[in-house]
# Entry
Amino acid sequence: MASKVPGSLRVSNDVIADLAGYAALECYGVVGMADTDEEQSVARLLPIYRLRKGIEVSLEDGLIVVDLHVILEQGVNMSSVAQNLESTVKFILNQIAEISQAEVRVHVEGLRKN
# Structure
């Protein structure tokens, strides 16, 4: 049985990005994280060891905001996958990092045939 430990928990942005990235990869329809080259308007699929590059973590008005830049599998319902992705990331952040209030924004950067 878990017991309460006095004190506070501090979680770095990199840890939040890692948790969000690995949670995202477990979602149906997500191929991977994307790195966007704004000059050429091209999205590139990132390897697993570079997930953080496709995730931005910021603090806006005291609320943690996680922006996920993803590439989805072609043919999936983007709205359903985005909703599932948002709820999965929020659940993982709450369970592991004890972050109960977070905003998750999903940016679909591209589609890929699997």
Observations:
- The domain at 13-112 is CATH 3.30.70.1350 (Alpha-Beta Plaits).
- The radius of gyration is 15 Å.
- The chain has two helices and five strands.
- The mean pLDDT is 90.
